[in-house]
Amino acid sequence: MSDIINILPDSVANQIAAGEVVDRPASAVKELLENALDAGATAIQLIVKDAGRTLIQVIDNGCGMSDADARLCFERHATSKIRRADDLFAIHTMGFRGEALASIAAVAQVELKSRQQESELGTRIVIEGSDVKEQSPCNCPTGTSISVKNLFFNIPARRNFLKKDSIEMSHIEEIFRRVALPNHDIAFSLHHNGRLLYDLKGGNLAQRIAGIFGSGFSERLYNIQESTEPVKLFGYVGKSEYAKRTRGEQYLFVNGRFIKHPVFSTAIERAYSELIPERTYPSYFVLLQVDPSRLDVNIHPTKTEVRFLDENIIFSILRAATKKALGQYSLATELEFDPSTEIDFSPAPKGHIAQQPTVTFNPNYNPFRGGGTPRGDYSKRSEFEHFFDSSTSPADDCTVERLPLEEEPVQEPATVFTATPIGYQNRYIVTTLKSGIVVIDQQRAHERILYERLLARSGAATAAQQLLFPVNVRFNAADSEMLCELMPELSRIGFIISPLGQNNFVVSATPADIGDNGLQELLEQTIDDYRNSMMQKFSDRDKSICISIARQMAVKGGTVLKAEEMQRIIGDLFSCQAPNISPSGRRTMVIIGEEELGEKFKL
Ligand code: ADP
Ligand code: MG
Predict the structure, then answer these.
(1) For the residues 339-357, what does the mean pLDDT come to?
(2) Cβ(282) to ligand 1 under 6 A?
(3) Per-residue pLDDT at 392 exceeds 70
(4) CB 494 within 8 A of CB 463
(5) Where are the domains of the chain?
(6) Is 207-333 assigned to CATH 3.20.20.70?
(7) Torsions phi, psi of 294, nearest 5?
(8) 71 lines ligand 1 (CB under 6 A)
(9) Fold classification of 422-589 (topology level)
(10) pTM of this prediction?
(11) SS3 of residue 421 by DSSP
């Protein structure tokens, strides 16, 4: 029998490997940008033509390559970044497989120019489909410039597979953002077809976010940071009121590398539960720093998946830190009632004030306003060192239990003192606290009160109040079916509804605050709202029903309230567990503190 096994020539092997590493222009962009970072560049330019089809060029001011290395770097498994298998567990660079340039050179026409600082002349090399066409000395600045032309020129099938320019370009821009965000101390620019799309100076993370997403973005974010043994984290999470219908700006990085980590994303999103409407998503930009030996980035060369040894603990820390950020800046932490004004607001309901931990923070701190000194050094850690070396929070400070929103209500009668409130535009209630003047949105506040009341009574025997005269209601077939499905939840919160057949029902009891008015509309709207929120995977039926009913029952903006009614809202609101946020995640009140007033009266 004759032998049939061949060793493939390198050019073919490289083309096959290229299929994995370079599947579209954006992946070549990623490899080239990462190489520039690994070379210690402090300024990196990306120039693209026709969404990368015609040209992808990356110019860096990094360490450059010697003549021999410039030739060698296009060989497969040619890398300067690891030598031994052991090195795999202590990777500090973006690349280490030595595959990228070999793969790119197999499927494009590549021109490389590179010079090391100490050499007078640089080297220029031209490669086409793995064939070296030319190598000669050249004049060029320190650093490296790689031009990748006519990607997939020798694989027409793949070239035809590319999507239209707008799509390929949006992939390239996304890669650019993922690289530029964590490496905020490095200058980046991006040109497409001669147009400058991004021009980012080196600075801190906040400045980088502003550079990419616009300076107005700063208003939407809270700072988040935590320093513990398995992970240090730093970044920004979006304020709940800016949660969006799509998963937009959600960026998670580990050791300067963008990752997708559904578990950690859930950790962040969980911290928002109840603060934002269902099916909306917060923005976040979170940098994790983890000992490289506690991660496995080796799963797939181009994938963004990473395995963490300490996944569970990092999950808790991330969630707690996000909650802390949201709670820390929420106005509830500032609440202190002013006992000097004598008007006793009573009887306060059997509610309670959750004891908020006192947190000191500078409400005027705005990381986006000036201040950041761009660092010239090439260190992905400097941000963390800057924040954590002087950190006052010890590792065990970060416990989920102590965070405000998860706290069990303290079983004490609430003693609430307040000056006589006044209404403004039949929409806001204005009163004073020890810490300042508080302006409450009457509708949102009332939604919060009703929501917590409905939830608190849920399941209790007293939840239902018999109606003197039962009310008949009738729905279309789809709503009837949905109503039947929601029957257990509705009965838990106090509705007693019995089917009479043919889509007719009789309501014989309702939750205490509701009564018998407009029951038909109330139930229809509740069914509708529920249907809208149903798509969400973790929708809690009880909660979404309570949110819907609370919204419908709440006094509306524009309703004239009597002083007693305003007082009742104030008292009830401050007895809530999360008084500063409406059930759908909107701000219920604004406090103008003494200091802020002082500022305003300075002149
Ligand atoms: P890897 O990054 O996995 O080592 P690459 O194929 O991306 O593999 O690059 C091969 C080698 O070429 C790198 O290890 C590095 O030594 C060198 N190299 C690539 N790009 C640059 C650059 N922009 N500046 C300096 N050296 C570079
Ligand atoms: Mg590389």
Answers:
(1) 36
(2) no
(3) no
(4) yes
(5) 10-203, 207-333, 422-589
(6) no
(7) -100, 15
(8) no
(9) Ribosomal Protein S8; Chain: A, domain 1 (3.30.1370)
(10) 0.62
(11) coil
